[in-house]
Amino acid sequence: MHPPYDRKERSIVNILIIEDDQQIRSFLSYILEKEGYHPEMAATGKEGLQLLKEKEFQLILLDLGLPDLDGMQVIEKVRAASNLPILVISARDQDHEKADALDLGADDYLTKPFSTTELLARIRTALRHAQNENKTQAALVKSVQGLTIDLDSHRVFVNEKEIHLTPLEFSLLACLFEQIGKVYTTQAILQKVYGTQYGSDTRALRTLMASLRRKIEPQPAKPRYILTEIGVGYRLNDHA
């Protein structure tokens, strides 16, 4: 028996089964429970979408031939709201239908009939990919006491209010976020933000720092987030 998701993280893994065939629903639920997962079942697309609003899931097992909504519609609606992994389980075996489901945002496609071994392997793969993606996204979004930087979208927020920075201001803040709570020397910042050609000329950096502080600090004259370490450099305050 394989561990659900990750043996090190004893977290509950909720899996939503959207399948109109009662026998298949019961079979899938039995297999998942046996492996330590927590299944929830829906017989229609609308019922499944409602459950997604009410509870948190880590994976969807989706049949395409539903009595109300087509499974393709369910994929579109889920993708409009989240990146929740979707594993399609369907009797439709035409290549174009598989391609359509994947193009709409499904993560994988398993054709009925299937083996329990393959099903569980596909589930573990989908969950592992989602876990790795979540870790990557988390690493790109960093926060310190209400100051948040999204390194992927190049956005900055102070207490959830977006602050518009210039590219150089963003680079300076991103530089400081690399070593939260630690001093970044003036020379290191100059090279990181401007390049080696600036040498030891700190005037441009002081001007840039003043501009950044005016935008993110409640009181720029008494910085809360970016502290000056006289004679050394700057530090992003981890106890702001």
TrEMBL record:
<dbReference type="InterPro" id="IPR011006">
    <property type="entry name" value="CheY-like_superfamily"/>
</dbReference>
<dbReference type="GO" id="GO:0032993">
    <property type="term" value="C:protein-DNA complex"/>
</dbReference>
<keyword id="KW-0597">Phosphoprotein</keyword>
<feature type="domain" description="OmpR/PhoB-type">
    <location>
        <begin position="139"/>
        <end position="238"/>
    </location>
</feature>
<dbReference type="Pfam" id="PF00486">
    <property type="entry name" value="Trans_reg_C"/>
</dbReference>
<dbReference type="Pfam" id="PF00072">
    <property type="entry name" value="Response_reg"/>
</dbReference>
<feature type="modified residue" description="4-aspartylphosphate">
    <location>
        <position position="63"/>
    </location>
</feature>
<keyword id="KW-0238">DNA-binding</keyword>
<keyword id="KW-0902">Two-component regulatory system</keyword>
<dbReference type="InterPro" id="IPR001789">
    <property type="entry name" value="Sig_transdc_resp-reg_receiver"/>
</dbReference>
<dbReference type="GO" id="GO:0000156">
    <property type="term" value="F:phosphorelay response regulator activity"/>
</dbReference>
<dbReference type="InterPro" id="IPR039420">
    <property type="entry name" value="WalR-like"/>
</dbReference>
<feature type="domain" description="Response regulatory">
    <location>
        <begin position="14"/>
        <end position="127"/>
    </location>
</feature>
<dbReference type="InterPro" id="IPR036388">
    <property type="entry name" value="WH-like_DNA-bd_sf"/>
</dbReference>
<dbReference type="GO" id="GO:0005829">
    <property type="term" value="C:cytosol"/>
</dbReference>
<dbReference type="GO" id="GO:0000976">
    <property type="term" value="F:transcription cis-regulatory region binding"/>
</dbReference>
<dbReference type="InterPro" id="IPR001867">
    <property type="entry name" value="OmpR/PhoB-type_DNA-bd"/>
</dbReference>
<keyword id="KW-0805">Transcription regulation</keyword>
<feature type="DNA-binding region" description="OmpR/PhoB-type">
    <location>
        <begin position="139"/>
        <end position="238"/>
    </location>
</feature>
<dbReference type="GO" id="GO:0006355">
    <property type="term" value="P:regulation of DNA-templated transcription"/>
</dbReference>
<protein>
    <submittedName>
        <fullName>DNA-binding response regulator</fullName>
    </submittedName>
</protein>
<keyword id="KW-0804">Transcription</keyword>
